[in-house]
Write a structure and sequence with these properties.
five-stranded antiparallel beta sheet, two-stranded antiparallel ribbon, alpha+beta, 7 strands
Length: 172
């Protein structure tokens, strides 16, 4: 008898979604790792954000919500929130949130809400370097920041090349 037929593994991503929002409830960043309709995404955010904002600061940073565990942490004026499966480890998720905030702090020099608003593409890029498909991709802050810095240099080079090309076209 083949034991593999009896034992099937249904693997889902550890992290289902990441939300970052302000104390006023404005969503600043959202990343979904499971296929979710736009309507459901809005509904989840509309229900979850006030639930978290309404909790007292001394309460636990873990919350059972629907069929998920919600792990969140407030840093200054921003809340970082991740939805995980019930069987997943909330302490590891809290550590992932902290790692992401450390990356943002290192890159922006004490990150604030305005940094995210005006540089949201950098915040998404760092999140994509840290997490891939809802799983931790890279643990080294140094490697992630190196990738972001390299991306910045490539973008700067590209903009300089475009300006040079525009200058050349203006001369003709």
């Amino acid at each position: 008898k083949d034991c593999w037929n009896e034992f099937t593994v249904s693997h889902t991503n550890m992290i289902q979604f990441v939300l970052m929002f302000s104390r006023q409830g404005k969503l600043r960043l959202q990343k979904w790792y499971e296929a979710t309709s736009q309507k459901d995404r809005k509904k989840i955010a509309r229900e979850l954000v006030p639930t978290i904002l309404g909790r007292k600061p001394k309460l636990c940073n873990f919350l059972e919500w629907r069929d998920l565990k919600i792990v969140y942490k407030r840093y200054a004026s921003l809340y970082f929130c991740m939805g995980i499966q019930m069987e997943d480890n909330e302490l590891i998720t809290l550590e992932i949130i902290h790692r992401y905030v450390e990356l943002l702090d290192k890159y922006f020099g004490s990150v604030c809400e305005l940094d995210i608003i005006f540089n949201y593409e950098k915040a998404y890029f760092m999140l994509d370097e840290l997490l891939l498909g809802g799983e931790m991709q890279e643990t080294s802050k140094k490697n992630i920041l190196k990738a972001v810095t390299t991306q910045d240099l490539l973008q700067e080079e590209s903009e300089n090349s475009k300006e040079t090309l525009d200058d050349m076209m203006a001369l003709t």
